[in-house]
Amino acid sequence: MERASLIAPLVRPGKCDSAVEEMEAERVENVLQTTGAERVIANYLPGRLEEAGWNARMFEECRKWLKANTASGQRVYYGQKVREKFREPEDVDPQELVKPLTKFGMSLTPKEVSTEVVEHIVKVIKENITN
């Protein structure tokens, strides 16, 4: 399976195609919350991503974005009013930084980490949802 196809359903809450899918999504979400699997995954992921080097790569991408889009990376010529044209890095809203890097961050997610999370979710669902 392709990595994006494994991650996409997990990161697109509220985008179900039909009422039945929406009911199923709510049911799965309730199971994950009541069993504590959601919290287990939330506690597991940061350490696992750190081990895989994902954090360092994302930090570097954030630095590149800030250099390209703020005054810290732009050349300043004599007499140029930098503050009027470019903002300082500390003036950037975090959401403004996260939005363009979200898809890139998802593509950097190691395949083994995403499959581990998906397998854990499937296991919890199989154990707790009976038709």
UniProtKB/TrEMBL annotation:
Read off the InterPro entries from this record.
TF_ENY2, TF_EnY2_sf
The processes (GO biological process) annotated in the record are: mRNA export from nucleus
Coiled coil feature spans? none
Q: Which GO terms describe its molecular function?
A: transcription coactivator activity
Q: Name one GO cellular component term.
A: SAGA complex
Specify the protein name.
RyR domain-containing protein
Whose protein is this, by species?
Taenia asiatica
The organism that produces this protein has a lineage beginning with: Eukaryota, Metazoa, Spiralia, Lophotrochozoa, Platyhelminthes
